[in-house]
Amino acid sequence: MQLISPSATETEVKSERPPASPARSRIRRASIILLFLLPSVILYTVLVVVPIIQAAYYSLFRWDGLEPLVNFVGLHNYLLAFSNPVFLETFAHNLLIVALSLCIELPFALLVSLVIGKKLPGGMIFRAIFFMPFVISEVIAGVIWQFIYRPDGGLLDAILQALNPHFQGGLWLADPRITLICIFVVIVWKYFGLYVVLYTAAIQNVPDEIVEAARVDGATGLQVTRYITIPLLGTTIRLSILLSVLGSLQIFDIIYVMTHGGPIHASEVFATYLITYGINAFAMGYGSAIGVVMFLTCFVFALMYQRFAMQRDVASSIAMQEA
Amino acid sequence: MKRREFLASMGGLVLASPLAISACGNTSTGSTTGNQKVTINWWFLDGQAKQNADWQNVAKQYMKAHPNVTIKTTIIENQAFKQKLATVMQAGQPPDIFHSWGGGILFNYAKAGLVKDLTPDLQGGWGDSFSQSALNVYAQNGHNWGVPWDMGGIAFYYNKDLFAKANITQLPTTWSQFLQVVQQLKSAGITPIALGEGDKWPGHYWWAYLATRIGGKAGFDAAATQQGAGFASQPFVEAGQRLQELIALKPFQKGFLGAVYNDEITAMGTGKAAMELMGQWAPAADEGQVPKGKTLNLGFFPFPMVEGGAGNPNDVFGGGGGYAVGKNAPQEAVDFLKFFTSVQVQRAFGKAGYLTPVVKGASDALTNPLLRDVQNMVAHAPYFQLYYDQYFPPAIANAVLDGTQALYAGTTTPQAVAQQVQAAAATALQGS
Amino acid sequence: MYALVQQRRFAQRRIIQKSVPLIPRYIICVAVAIFVLVPMLVAILGGFRTNADLNSAPFALPNPWHFENFAGIVTQPVFWLSFWNSLVVTVATVVLLLAISCPAAFVFARMDFPGRQMVFNFLLIGFLFPFAMAILPLYIMLRGLGLLNTLQGVILTQVAFGVPATVLILRNFFWAIPRELEDATYIDGGTPVDFFWHVLLPLARPALAVIAMLTMVASWNNFLLPLLTLGDQSTWTLPLGIMQFQTEHLTDWAAIMAYITLCMIPAIIFYLLAERYLVSGLTTSGALRG
């Protein structure tokens, strides 16, 4: 995915009909381009870009959202944020979720995809099942898992107690030490299906001939997977990493619905912190600064990732374009 | 040809408003009195289903008597309400009538010019009908920014059957007696206290009450005006220490740190916990959660005195509910409020147990003995303190809420909490 | 010659025997499927039980099956109103999003002009913007445009935020359409618009279906945006209704389960209908080519 244009130049073959009269067709062409582009670009600019720029502007002020915007404090809000232990804890939580996703969720999805492989009979049904949680709303998912995690009679307690009569019953979401892990389980439940779909689709593209050739050469199933399938999945894996990291940094609904970021900030992430201590606390400047930090984190990551990890993918897609 | 059609269809898509929306779309704007059609947006808090219905009936009655007025109600849950109100306020679009607890947050809105000044309307009969201490919760510097319809105090509601089961014969009047009661309950295998600390505000009641008992009015006023050590002064530190004595006994229900207030209601209603420190709406709320076929016998006792405290044992910490009027609201909104706070409505709701009346002539309508106890308590209080999380501007409120939650979780010390609150106060109060 | 073929066949048989055995694979798939389905079944089955049942034996089948929870909900006009609102918003979002994104993607894919890459990157930056950050300025913007408290406001905002991903997927997809088809159109005397409308779009169905499905899901489930911009309860969408319902029914978990089941079903139906396009749409869209 080309996020930011690398230095590579694209030379795309222009395929338009031979101009009948140069000036008129230039105008015509320009008007098509404008007409086709304008609605989306305008809507996007007005409702996405302008508010974000405004928010960044607010971040330089101390403002409660009610009085006029006069109290310019420069980067003070940013200093406040980075010297606030709760915010730093929040940052750490986001990074933890990123790490957990990369180390657990993605490999899990990959494993499942490899198990389904290309030809497992009924594999498509399984994939359809795995994707289903992605489709239901975060609010619903939160409610269901709240019921499961309920201390004193929730489903999880009931299951564990059935398995082990000595089990005392856990606190789950109410326990600051494990609430983030419990939430992570829900995150995996809800989103891993997306990655399974991506991976299985890519696995379909692994050419049979190569696999057969390897088999003929005596490779075992595992060796085929390791030396052929996974490398061919490279582009998809890299893409899934990008999506996963960005998603982890921006995660909101599911945590907000289940724990509001609590207890005592144990599950606080950027977005919940922004809402609770920015917007709801009438500290709009501070909240906007948090938002800017969120954005910059995503931006820096995306930029570096694209430059270092996805350079090959970008280059090859350009090459394919020129072909 | 084709292109034009294409453009037309795209244009149509972009500009057309989807189907049945226009009817619902418009918010009301200020309008004059008279017989033109007027719409009032009324935001009130979500109660139990029956309570919501009764509330809406008041609107219906008014609409019947005033056919040109339409009242649109928005019923919204407590936490979501705070969220939504914050947003609409910051965008400068206050609802016409909205719930308010008074105190610093309301006054912030007033300062920003978002709330209608009700002082002129309250001159005369309407203003006189209210209990003055209740009305004052919504007043600042001689201006009235809202009217109350409920004012009570926080106290203990306890399950009489569970207390009997633990052989508790005397209700505690001092803090050490209270701790003993807690221990007795624990030995009898009963969860002593229901607390929904996940929402943070229920827990801060304990800390605030302890501070009120220990420091009294003098202590609070000194801190609020930033004299001496402000909120880092002794009463607030000791409040934390006393609270820790209680927390050490582990008296709360399982998972209380993540539990919300609704869970507290359930714990009380289903008899899973013996008592709660809550406001005057608690009996009605708990009642709503009692399983069919069972009964809940609730009793009442006020917050005990702390030995050696400088406060008066009759001081009350609490609050109630009221409504404020948005700056753009039509005059009919104020008129409706007059109806809502009229004696008949107050009596009806008092009888139903939804509120503790604040209007003269309605106080004896209370049939629920628990609410009568609350009323007595409030009436005889030399000093009445509004909930900290409403009284203070949000920055201080958050410091209190977060600090007390950390105390419950055992991750902080009483001194640290007091200092946190003081730091927030120093920054927030310096400007005003 | 025949010997070589024989050798090949023999090797192939060995290959089959050497591939990873099926049974462990099925075990894994079934185990994961259980993990995925149980929570959803809890919700669906929970709606058919009473609260007392749920409290005493959380993990059991309904016995007997109670229908009053569902009946109680579907007889309330408020439920259907929020359902309708969600439906209107979702359909309008999908239609509008596709209507403005397809042309834009076409231009990016097939027509060159100065600054094309810049504009495209400009659109892509939208991926990095956290919605939470934009709430207040967005609110003010909507207010200024008179779109507050309207479903149009929700629709337009959702479309605006959906533009980056949609344009990206579509552009990559359009890249994949063979050049020859385009040339053929021009040779026949067609304009780029003709190509776009008559050739490209019909071929793009898988990608359109994927985007429609993903957008439908996102819109149907969107919570924060409607919460903050819709004040009037008659405009509320389904997720807001859930929040309301949950508060009013506190711990009547059975009723809550019934409610969320009713909300889940449409989303699942959308999904099952469009599922077969999902993989083909994502594959050929070149999302995997980067």
Mean pLDDT of chain B: 85
Number of helices of chain A: 14
CATH class of chain A: Mainly Alpha
Q: Fill in the CATH topology of the largest domain in chain B.
A: D-Maltodextrin-Binding Protein, domain 2
Mean pLDDT reading of chain A? 83
Number of domains of chain A: 1
Under the CATH scheme, the architecture of chain A is Orthogonal Bundle
CATH topology of chain A: MetI-like fold
By CATH's scheme, which homologous superfamily of chain A applies? MetI-like
CATH superfamily of the largest domain in chain B: Periplasmic binding protein-like II
CATH class of the largest domain in chain B: Alpha Beta
Number of discrete domains of chain B: 2
What does this structure look like?
- The complex is a heterotrimer of chains A (323), B (432) and C (290).
- Chain A has one domain (87-317): MetI-like fold (Orthogonal Bundle).
- Chain A has 323 residues and is mainly α.
- In chain A, helix 1 packs across helix 13 (284-308) and helix 3 (85-116) packs antiparallel against helix 10.
- Chain A is built from 14 helices and no strands.
- With 432 residues, chain B is an alpha/beta fold.
- Chain B has helices at 2-15, 22-25, 49-65, 78-90, 103-111, 119-122, 125-128, 132-136, 160-165, 175-187, 201-224, 234-248, 261-269, 282-287, 331-340, 343-352, 369-379, 388-391, 394-409, 414-430, and strands at residues 38-45, 69-76, 97-100, 139-140, 143-144, 146-153, 155-159, 191-193, 273-278, 298-301, 316-325, 384-386.
- In chain B, helix 11 (201-224) runs antiparallel to helix 12, helix 11 (201-224) packs across helix 19 and helix 19 packs antiparallel against helix 20.
- Chain C is mainly alpha-helical.
- Chain C contains 14 helices and no strands.
- At the A-C interface, helix 1, helix 3, helix 4, helix 5 and helix 6 of A face helix 1, helix 2, helix 5, helix 6 and helix 7 of C.
